[in-house]
Amino acid sequence: MKRFHVHLYVDDLNRNIAFYSGLFAAQPARVEADYAKWMLDDPPVNFAISARGRQAGLDHFGIQVDNDADLAALKAQAQAAQMPILDEGQAACCYARSDKHWVTDPQGIAWEHFRTLEGIPTFNGSGRSAATACCAPTPAPAACCAPAAPEPLDAPSLRHAQRGIGKA
Q: How many CA atoms lie within 13 A of 58 on its CB side?
């Protein structure tokens, strides 16, 4: 099974847990002091939020798979997109140890392809503080999970401004 993945940074974790629990009509599958994740079946989505000192908004998209063959197929597809791939192999991030690789789209949005191997008790597997990097390759000291992009894209705000949403 393949599952679409979205990770957002939020300003107020508890407020967002309440909002998304209502929106999805489901409680999170995992809640930590700085993180929550819903594993939705209809549609199949791994939706994660975290409050880790970054600007609120989109962190990255991804596709989660259940087996090595699907992960290899996604890697081949990413290579066909002719963008650089960051292959992390086994990495610890977001309270899980996963086999993963990354590709960044032309807009600078990171896409993670991963297979979760096991849950772990800390966000990044090392007990480092919330303000330090967990999954990004060095030297991206402020990043959590996604490889560094040219500039963070606040896509929802940009789209809303372009469409005039939120104007009285």
A: 20
Q: Which residues of the chain have pLDDT under 70?
A: 126-168
> Contact 4/63 with Cβ under 8 angstroms?
yes
Question: What whole-number distance in Å separates Cα of residue 121 and Cα of residue 94?
Answer: 10
Query: What's the sign of the alpha-carbon dihedral 65, 152, 24, 18?
Result: positive
**Angle, alpha carbons 18-15-40 (nearest 5°):** 40
The residues pairing with 58 across neighbouring beta strands, listed in sequence order, are 8
Q: What is the DSSP string of 1-63?
A: --EEEEEEE-S-HHHHHHHHHHHHTS--SEEETTEEEEEEETTEEEEEEE-SSS-SEEEEEEE
Left if phi > 0, otherwise alpha if psi is -120 to 50, otherwise beta: which for 164?
Answer: left
Tell me what pLDDT residue 52 has.
80
Q: Model pTM?
A: 0.71
d(C-alpha 75, C-alpha 112), whole Å: 10
List beta partners, residue 93.
96
